[in-house]
Amino acid sequence: MGQWEVYPEFEVVRSSARCTKCLGCVAQCANGVHQYDGVQLTCDSAKCVDCHRCVAMCPTRALKIVKTDCALRENSNWDSQTIKEIFKQAQSGGVLLSSMGTPKPYPVYWDKLLLNASQVTNPSIDPLREPMETRVCLGKKPDKPQRGPDGRFTCELPPQLKLAMPMLFSAMSYGSVSYNAHEALARAAEELGVYYNTGEGGLHEDFYAYSPNTIVQVASGRFGVHEGYLNAGAAIEIKMGQGAKPGIGGHLPGTKVGADISRTRMIPEGSDAISPAPHHDIYSIEDLRQLVYSLKQSTHHKKPVIVKVAAVHNIAAIASGIARSGADIIAIDGFRGGTGAAPTRIRDNVGIPIELALAAVDQRLRDEGIRNQVGIIAGGSIRSSADVAKAIALGADAVYIATAALLALGCHLCRTCQTGMCNWGIATQRPELVARLDPKEGAKRLVNLMTAWNHEIMEMLGGMGINSIEALRGNRLMLRGIGLTAKELEILGVAHAGE
Amino acid sequence: MAYKIMAQGLDAAGLGRQIQAHPGPVEVVGCLGQRFIGAGMHGKKIRVTGIPGNALGAYLNGGEIEVCANAQDAVGDTMNAGTIVIHGDVGDTVGYAMRGGEIYVEGSAGYRAGVHMKEYQDKVPVMVIGGRAGSFLGEYQAGGVILVLGLTGSGPIAGNFPCTGMHGGKVLLRCRPEELLFPGQVTALPASPQDLDAVRPYLEEFCRRFGKDLAFILNAPFTLAVPDSRNPYRQMYVAN
After folding, report:
1. Who contacts A370 (Cβ-Cβ below 8 Å, separation ≥6)?
2. CB B96 to CB A268 under 8 A?
3. Which domain holds residue B223?
4. Positions in chain A short of pLDDT 50
């Protein structure tokens, strides 16, 4: 080490008793932690990112990774992460760039909300015995029922997205994640009867086969956007913002722009793929309306248009504007959402929690009498089926999940996606690493996860004495807060536990 | 023989349906601001008399749209293939995120022309503006060719902040390099005869469409602006 070096954050510990020198770890670690010189097997812990690939793949469980106990002096204000970030910036002059959602200890409102259960006079329902409706339709619903000249109801609806369960896979671009990751998500979406999202990197030709389960995204860079792409989607999502990095554009580092990415995005190989901060043709809500209708016109009004925004201040007013712009669905992405790469300071300090945003938007749209004009998808750190149930109770029609999906595919949340060296084959473009992710096995794990969550949701619904997602949607009476201030309870629109 | 569609009283969706319903070339007569004409279209010829509304030819994927007047904003938005010809001026954001095809504007363009144009191998979009371009020309350009000829209009050939964030493609302006202020990441030098040869087919097409004199156009200094590969537009990041 030298004057400006910092002791590595992690230590790789090898049990010499269990290690058989199979050299699997040498092959598995793309960061070059494990080395073998013919005689000795060594670890350079400075290169370790705590992704646990070697730990999982070691046949004798001889490896473990621990947080170093070589620590700076404890300080509640100047914690060691903050100090090291200053060292990094003094060294490089660079903007701090991080991956995945913010790890900062902001309050998690999901964990301060409790669900109801039925007892005594309002019996609960046993989901094994009775049918539970978890299907939802996302889209614009008419203001009032219409009748034809013969008096019968006319059941014509604007285009809807039908889901078998109230969960979809959120946008992760081809480029930020690998081809195999996309294939796993597409296969799983098809099998589950839900949707996955192309993200802003375009749609690889091989995946047009999954069109009925694909949401195509139109972001400010318009990567991969052409008429065939628009018509390939079951819905089109305009990305106005993303929870992890509100207000700034997308950024795919040049190291991840190889030949295939260059072809799909139509940018020079090795050059950073920049999506500008705003769409430079959308500077007002009227411009957004124009873009929404240009997409509808190009696809003959057959597909719902989703507008995805980051949860920020005044999100309720923004959502009201979006609803009036002609969008069929609003997707709100909370500040804890994941990302392949975002400036650390933006990720950790910009945006608001999805729980508060969702409650505020649902309530505002109801107050204005336009809640039926849009579906709402909520995202930004949905970690379990309980979070899903609570999100629906706060007003969402469905939720976007992304980090949880990547965890199902093998991600261990080491948060170094921006290097493009993902040992699990997910957030990388290197062929030898991508090959480690088996799309069929990945799809099976995604199906397992979502099926399990769906069963848990049915159990929670049954426990509440209701038998459909629709009956839970926006039903704040099914929630109680715990450890929340009066203001937080007011914004969430829930009473305190005990009331 | 083009089938005439009377635009009066039709909204954008209605006009779109009429245009689609008739195979073969169509002429939209009496257009008065209807938007999205030819949006997502492939392989059709549309002629517009009257003033079209915004987003003419958005996501165009083939065919041709010819307007015998000024057009408005968002012409050729995210266009992929085909040709748009405007016998007049265009508004703002012409050719946003253009990926292929050609746009020929006889007059001037407004703000933000050619933002984030792209290219891949032989799929190279081209935009020729006969007059002047407003500010923020070619912002974030990643590929494609923009030509600005300054034949009409007054004032500088392009507005402020041209080519900010340019990281691919090229812009040729019919002026001297010192007449405009480019960002540090862009190299702007006098265009060589080879540079002009490379774009000659587009200039010839421009002259053919609008009845202009190629020799007159070429008899003036041109500037070629390209991203400076030694000083790429790049934010310095450190992994955290």
Report:
1. A320, A323, A324
2. no
3. 90-234
4. none
